[in-house]
Amino acid sequence: MENVTGLKRYTEDMDYTLSTKLKLCYNQFMENEIYIGSVYKHYKGNKYVVVSIAVHTETLEELVVYRAIYGDGELWARPKKMFLDNIEKNGKIIPRFKLIKKL
Questions:
Q1: What's the CA gap between 95 and 40, in Å, rounded?
Q2: pLDDT tens, residue by residue, 14-50
Q3: 89 vs 10, 36, 99, CA distance in Å?
Q4: 34 pairs with which residues across the strands?
Q5: Are 102 and 38 in contact (CB under 8 A)?
Q6: With CB atoms counted within 10 Å of each terminal CB, which end of the chain scores lower, N or C?
Q7: H helices within the chain, ranges in order?
Q8: For residues 49 and 41, is the Cβ–Cβ distance under 8 A?
Q9: Beta 92-95 vs 97-101: how paired, if at all?
Q10: Which residues pair with 94 in a beta bridge?
Q11: Burial class (CB in 10 A: 0-12, 13-18, 19+), 40
């Protein structure tokens, strides 16, 4: 009987571990997604709408093309990796761009 209880506990622990790992993988995947038409807030406070994903002609690096939702609505492009990067501000690690309105 003790072996069955131990096996059940082991199985429950494995389920929890697997579930946690799947959640972490899903969150990491979702953090690497860029949503076209969605609004992102730059860590300095300005807001931008993502227009498209482009590809650099020489390096084939993905670029995020985004438009400012202030001023003249300037169009910008930044490497996707950099767009999704975290930065350090006042001793805290924060996203360079944070999704605030998903379309």
A1: 10
A2: 555 555 555 544 444 455 789 999 999 999 999 999 9
A3: 42, 27, 18
A4: none
A5: yes
A6: N
A7: 2-31, 80-84
A8: no
A9: unpaired
A10: 87
A11: buried
Q: What is the identity of the amino acid at 84?
A: L
**CA atoms of 79 and 54, how far apart (whole Å):** 9
Phi, psi of 89 (to 5 degrees): -140, 125
Q: With residue 42 as reference, give the H or E element that holds it.
A: strand 39-42
Q: Report which residue type is found at 95.
A: P
Amino acid at 51: V
Structure tokens at 93: 């690690």
pLDDT digits (tens, 9 = 90+) for 40-72: 999 999 999 999 999 999 999 999 999 999 999
Kindly list the distances between the CA atom of residue 66 and the CA atoms of 37, 93, 98, in Å, as whole numbers in the listed order. Answer: 9, 23, 13
